[in-house]
Amino acid sequence: MQWQFAGFYEGHRATVLSLAGSLQHRYFFSVAADGLLVKWDINQPNEGQVLTRISGLMPAMCYLPDDTLVVAVNHKGLLTLNAQTGAKQQFCDLASVSVKKLILAGSWLLVLTTANELLWVEAATLNLMHRWQCRETLTDIVLLGQKIWVATASGLLQFSLNMGESEAITLLKNIQQLLPWDEKSFLARSANSITKCTVKKGMAMANYPFTFNADTKVYGGRLKNKFGLLMVDNTSGKWFDLKKGSLNLHIEVKNPHNANINDLLWIENYKFAITAGADARIGIWQCY
């Protein structure tokens, strides 16, 4: 099992903010602080196709199965575009919103805002259907088991997809990040550990103590049909397995970005990992 840095794709002139694409495809998309939305092909380095220029900060983006891109533009709203031509299709006005995270959940787009709101937007129409406000900080959201899991300072909240009432699960506190693991479990990351939880009740199954650097970002992934965790920071990318209550380091590769990594995307069935750098470059990492 090998994991190595393959090179950079360059073209953006400012920090790359978000990536989108399909796990099955060889192409992917990037948005940056220069306002450019670019389509890239893994087989054609540095031949990115500029689809459009968008005015405003774009902190999040997601790819829909019908070959549509959804781009979140702070203090403006959500915009859908044709992923091949860049033609603009629909717009959802969210003039007062700054976006922290955007995910596709069934027929919904879920928007986590910096004002600790969770928004339900119809993916097909871009109509805002429901807006939920929390009194405490919301740090992450993930869809698993037909339930929406929301991380807060005091624990986990669980919502049904049809905008049902939330259920509070307070076993875990100060969660910074949620990661899908398999069909029956997810990972909850805090400042000093990763906890594996059941989807059914959110109960802890195992705890893995670990001290993270302040700039560490954690992503789930797969190498040679084996699921694990990729941790990236300013200096390196590290691949870990979870076994018997501990995180086991398998591979460590120097991080060639000269700044923070803002996003990571897997494509071609985990053959490549794409990193969005604050140094305005896109990193290509190959797994074999």
How would you sum up this structure, described in words?
This protein is an all-beta fold and 288 residues long. It has a single domain (3-287), classed as YVTN repeat-like/Quinoprotein amine dehydrogenase (Methylamine Dehydrogenase, Chain H). Helices cover 0% and strands 60% of the residues. It is built from no helices and 28 strands. It has strands at 3-10, 16-21, 27-32, 36-41, 49-53, 60-64, 68-73, 77-82, 88-93, 99-105, 108-113, 117-122, 128-133, 138-144, 147-152, 156-160, 167-169, 177-182, 185-189, 193-198, 204-209, 217-223, 226-232, 236-243, 246-254, 261-267, 272-277, 281-287. A four-stranded antiparallel β-sheet has the order 1-28-27-26, with no helix packed on it. Strands 2-3-4-5 form a four-stranded antiparallel β-sheet, with no helix packed on it. The chain has a four-stranded antiparallel β-sheet with strand order 6-7-8-9, with no helix packed on it.
Series of secondary-structure elements, N-terminal to C-terminal:
EEEEEEEEEEEEEEEEEEEEEEEEEEEE
Count of helical regions? 0
Strand content: over 45%
Overall tally of domains: 1
CATH class: Mainly Beta
Main sheet: strand order: 1-28-27-26
Based on secondary structure, the structural category is mainly beta
Question: What shape does the CA trace take?
Answer: globular
Q: Would you report the number of β strands?
A: 28
Helix content: under 10%
Unreliable spans: none
CATH H-level name... which superfamily?
A: YVTN repeat-like/Quinoprotein amine dehydrogenase
Mean pLDDT: 88
